[in-house]
Specification:
Number of strands: 22
Largest sheet: 7 strands, mixed
Number of helices: 20
Strand content: 15-25%
Number of domains: 4
CATH class of the largest domain: Alpha Beta
CATH architecture of the largest domain: 3-Layer(bba) Sandwich
Helix content: 25-40%
């Protein structure tokens, strides 16, 4: 019934969908197994993609030839660029999506992908021979053989849903959990743990009084996530902002005795940066209110998501508290919030390719590695799909460095540091974030992916054209001068010093009070140059960023080059750290467990001191 596959992907969430697409597009015969074909890449939590640092990840996935950016553009109902008041390293795109359209678009794109087959079933076991993966065993009893397997089980591994004292098995509301795999993997020598995440009530928009809330509109000139997308969002749906209050908090506290989190019925660790409302009330007891974002679930539905109100308290308590929030006085809900507890496997058991160290050909990606978020999961899936395909074709693994991408930071953090709570990406995690901006993801990554055979020629051509046009405008403003009488009125209007003599346009752009759009609208010959050469806002913005931050970027590149020297000092996987008695006991233990590939990775392991690194460096020099 089944042929042998090159790659089997288990789970069709964001991670599994990207993994299957990448492997198939690289020419591998791929099978995607999911329990529900109608829930491919389902947005189980909030109906949005991107956000702080997460938006950079989606742009990187797109630059590498993944699907997440394209699907988001086809299904978005609102776009905002966050942190525009800060420096460009902090700018992060975010889109509200139509939840049902998002999943439908993903399925359409996957069904249009060559080399990709589908099977609706549960995977309950792995076929392993001599520490090498050989395939999977499904709930229907089928043995399906393959050269590699990627596990992207999300929250389904022994998932338990909690609502107050109510407790029942589930991978998410309405879906069965997955059993058997955890127990088999533990038997094979893997360590496992428990984590938890949560989701808020869904509210009937017909019962919300939006007049009592603050409207949050999308950007006036919305952008796209994908570098390939040509269409622009013409209309948008607004989000809304409201707040909790002391009365709301007191009502929620009535359910604390029945809270599974406070009562100890949940063993798993929850996300510190996206806590439940009861956790926020407990941890930030000095705060009298918390901000809530009321987000539409799509174009044609009345369902709303209350971002910031995740809870596992009894459903009647959630409902009573909700109705004491401004705008929700007469609210009706579609379903309560809940917490879900699930198995994960500490990612220090993986190689940089996301292949497990114990079983050859077996890869983990997504929440099974202790991460949280669609974007983090999708990035891991993409990289696992790429590397599984490369391995079966006897090609070198594809690994991104910390100075090359947020994806590189994500995977290095997971492999090197491990996790003790659900991992979420932030701009602060990236030490080279001025280099890793959302606007230059294509410049950083598309050529690498094209060389792999994943990114299309169209993507490469668009990137090269962007580089050409950016250089064209940069050279123009660096060579053309402007006189005081041509520019002083603009400078005085924007509160910056007037000119006394001619200067290059680029020098004017260095001033923080002046933007490239100010100059284009004020200087006729610059405006004519932009129009003649068809330079869009993306090009102009890139030129502005590079001009204003050129010296910072140069310094950061120099720093990244120095760091790479450590990354180029390789450590053998079978190196016996216990033989180096000059290493601290903790360093010997941690290094033996993680087995770092380079001295740079070793330096980022918690518990390995600079003096330990010096010992290793001296040994390597010998």
């Amino acid at each position: 019934m089944f042929e042998e596959y090159d790659v089997i992907v288990v789970g069709a969430g964001h991670s599994g969908s990207e993994a299957a697409a990448a492997a198939a597009n690289l020419g591998s015969k791929t099978l995607l197994i999911t329990m529900n074909m109608n829930a491919i890449a389902q947005m189980s939590c909030n109906p949005a993609m991107g956000g702080i640092a997460k938006g950079q990840i989606v742009r990187e996935i797109d630059a590498l030839g993944g699907y997440s950016g394209l699907v988001t553009d086809k299904s978005m109902i609102q776009f905002r660029m966050l942190n525009k008041s800060k420096g460009p390293a902090m700018w992060s795109p975010r889109a509200q999506s139509d939840r049902m359209m998002f999943s439908a678009e993903w399925r359409t794109m996957l069904e249009g992908t060559k080399n990709l087959d589908f099977w609706q079933d549960m995977v309950k076991g792995l076929i392993v021979e001599k520490s090498t993966i050989k395939g999977v065993i499904t709930g229907m009893g089928h043995k399906i053989y393959s050269k590699s397997v990627i596990l992207t089980n999300g929250t389904f591994l022994n998932g338990i849903i909690h609502i107050g004292q109510k407790q029942f098995k589930g991978g998410r509301m309405g879906d069965k959990p997955s059993g058997g795999l955890t127990e088999q993997l533990i038997g094979l020598g893997f360590d496992s743990g428990r984590m938890k995440t949560g989701t808020p009530v869904r509210v009937d928009g017909r019962t919300i009084n939006f007049d009592k809330m603050e409207e949050q509109k999308g950007d006036e000139n919305p952008e796209n996530f994908s570098f390939l997308s040509k269409t622009k969002l013409i209309k948008q749906r607004s989000c809304w902002i409201t707040y909790t209050s002391p009365v709301v908090h007191d009502t929620l506290k009535l359910g604390f005795n029945d809270s599974p989190m406070f009562a100890g019925r949940i063993d798993g660790v929850g996300p510190r940066y996206c806590p439940s409302i009861e956790d926020k009330i407990e941890r930030f007891s000095d705060k009298t209110k918390h901000q809530l974002f009321v987000e539409p679930e799509g174009w044609d539905t009345v369902e709303y998501y209350v971002n910031g109100f995740s809870s596992s308290l009894p459903d009647d308590i959630q409902f009573k508290a909700l109705r004491k929030i401004a705008g929700f006085e007469n609210a009706k809900i579609f379903r309560p919030g809940y917490a879900i507890e699930y198995d994960y496997f500490p990612p220090t058991q993986l190689k940089y390719s996301l292949e497990t160290k114990l079983i050859e050909g077996l890869y983990f990606a997504g929440q099974i590695n202790g991460t949280t978020g669609y974007e983090e999961a999708a990035a891991q899936g993409l990289m696992a799909g790429i590397n599984a395909s490369l391995k079966i074709n006897s090609k070198n693994e594809f690994v991104l460095g910390r100075s090359e991408s947020y994806i590189g930071v994500l995977i290095d953090d997971l492999i090197t540091k491990g996790v003790d709570e659900p991992y979420r990406m932030f701009t602060s995690r990236a030490e080279h974030r001025i280099l890793l901006r959302q606007d230059n993801a294509d410049i950083r990554l598309t050529k690498k992916s094209f060389d792999l055979g994943l990114a299309s020629a169209e993507r490469l051509d668009l990137m090269n054209e962007k580089i050409r046009k950016t250089k064209l405008l940069t050279d123009f403003i660096k060579s053309e001068s402007i006189s005081p009488d041509q520019i002083n009125s603009l400078l005085e209007k924007n509160g910056t010093n007037s000119l006394k003599q001619k200067t290059k346009i680029a020098n004017i752009l260095l001033r923080p009070q002046i933007s490239i759009n100010d100059l284009i609208s004020h200087i006729d010959f610059l405006s004519d140059f932009v129009k003649t050469n068809n330079l869009d806002n993306v090009i102009c913005e890139s030129v502005e960023i590079f001009t204003k931050y050129e010296r910072y970027i140069e310094k950061e590149n120099e720093f990244a080059d120095k760091i790479k020297l450590l990354e180029n000092l390789s450590l053998k996987e079978d190196f016996d750290y216990n033989s180096l008695q000059s290493l601290s006991t903790e360093a010997r233990e941690k290094l033996s467990k993680v087995k770092p590939k380079t001295l740079g990775q070793a330096s980022r392991i918690s518990g390995v001191s600079p003096s330990d690194i010096n010992v290793l460096a001296v040994f390597l020099k010998r």
